[in-house]
Design a protein that fits this description.
Distance between the termini: 152 Å
Oligomer: single chain
Structural class: mainly beta
Number of helices: 1
Shape: elongated
Strand content: 35-45%
Order of helices and strands: EEEEEEEEEEHEEEEEEEEEEEEEEEE
Strand order of the largest sheet: 3-4-5
Largest sheet: 3 strands, antiparallel
Helix content: under 10%
Length: about 280
């Protein structure tokens, strides 16, 4: 009516924040809000997803994205080519959030190639070999030859010799027994003596000898090796007698004094004082 005025639109206050009339914003929980006539009106965000396998909304977003694909719980990048877990040779590709898959064409009856035999439920071609028929994948040996193994692969027979291990024994110790495919090493004969490399002397097994030092004794072991052991001497008297060719000094035969040997109970003058008399006592 003439003389009246329209009041201006009122702003809104929402959670302590002023909002101008007609403004739109998004709240937490993907709520779309607008200010109308001083009131705040909110509703859930409506998402339009134009792809079949969108990725979940990124952090801080509300709507799924078609910049990649989510297939069987696995995130795929744009352009990624993959095979599903139960695809049986199926190939899939991620394009703009959509997953497209292509499966091999499986002809009825026998398989035309070995690759299709692994992907399709067709029957691989059998093998006809020396008057016998073998199914695909069957392994067999040649007649009378257990050392050759053959396998049927899509109508073709492939044979190979049984691999033999490398032997570390010389040729004269190798032996091929009846019915064996590979040679084995014979056990070497047991040694009967020991050889010393320095002088070529041979000692029978069990022989004990001294190599030149009376305090060292050696024995020829049953495996042909030589074991030596030294004797540690413990002197039990202050003036022992050293006998040539004997390892340890002898304290029971007498005494050694100033380079001279005296028998038990023998008296002799002291080399330091001619008025002193010494006696050899063996204890």
């Amino acid at each position: 009516a003439p003389g009246t005025s329209i009041p201006p639109p009122r702003r809104c206050w929402h959670r302590g924040i002023p909002r101008e009339p007609g403004t739109h914003w998004t709240e937490l929980g993907c709520q779309s809000c607008t200010c109308q006539g001083g009131r705040v009106l909110c509703d859930s965000v409506s998402c339009s997803v134009p792809c079949s396998h969108p990725l979940p909304a990124p952090a801080g977003g509300c709507c799924p994205t078609c910049t990649g694909c989510l297939h069987e719980g696995v995130a795929r990048a744009e352009g990624d080519v993959f095979s599903p877990s139960d695809g049986n040779c199926t190939i899939c590709v991620c394009l703009a959030g959509n997953v497209s898959c292509l499966s091999p064409e499986c002809p009825p009856g026998p398989c035309p190639s070995l690759s299709l035999a692994d992907c399709c439920s067709c029957n691989p071609e059998k093998c006809h070999f020396r008057g016998h028929t073998y199914a695909h994948g069957a392994q067999f040996s040649l007649d009378g030859d257990d050392c050759t193994t053959c396998v049927c692969q899509g109508g073709e027979v492939e044979c190979s010799f049984t691999p033999c291990p490398m032997l570390d024994c010389p040729q004269h110790q190798r032996h091929l027994g009846p019915g064996q495919c590979c040679s084995t090493c014979r056990d070497p004969p047991a040694p009967t003596s020991c050889f010393l490399d320095d002088n070529g002397v041979e000692f029978p097994v069990g022989q004990i000898w001294s190599p030149g030092d009376p305090c060292e004794l050696c024995i020829c072991q049953a495996d042909g090796s030589v074991s030596c052991q030294r004797t540690d001497c413990v002197e039990t008297c202050p003036y022992p007698i050293r006998i040539p060719g004997q390892c340890c000094p002898d304290c029971s035969a007498g005494c050694t004094y100033m380079g001279r040997i005296f028998s038990n109970n023998e008296t002799f003058p002291s080399a330091l004082d001619p008025c002193l008399s010494c006696i050899c006592l063996v204890r």
